[in-house]
Amino acid sequence: MAVISREHALNVVRRVYGPEHAERVAPELPERIDLENPADTNLLYKLGLTPDGLYNALGSSL
Question: What gap in Å lies between CA 59 and CA 30, rounded to an integer?
Fold first, then answer.
């Protein structure tokens, strides 16, 4: 299971997608994001983020 904190996700989003995008998505992100949970994955897609992009930014692979 790949669970990351909201703050960690926002740091990654800032680095990968830019600070403006991070500020836009911050209010919608839960405190913990499970990158293998379909509900969290759907939320990420809705916000313009992809689990693959977050995994790659974290230096991991699926």
Answer: 22
Domain of residue 23: give its range: 3-58
Distance CA(45)–CA(43), nearest Å, equals: 5
In the chain, how many domains are there?
A: 1
Beta-bridge mates of residue 34: 3
Q: How far is CA 26 from CA 43, 45, 48, 62, in A?
A: 12, 14, 12, 24
Sequence letter at residue 58: L
Entry pTM: 0.70
Residuewise pLDDT in 10s, the chain (62 residues): 688 899 988 988 888 888 998 999 999 999 999 988 999 989 888 887 776 776 676 665 44
For the chain, the helix, strand and coil percentages under 3-state DSSP, each to the nearest 5: 65, 10, 25
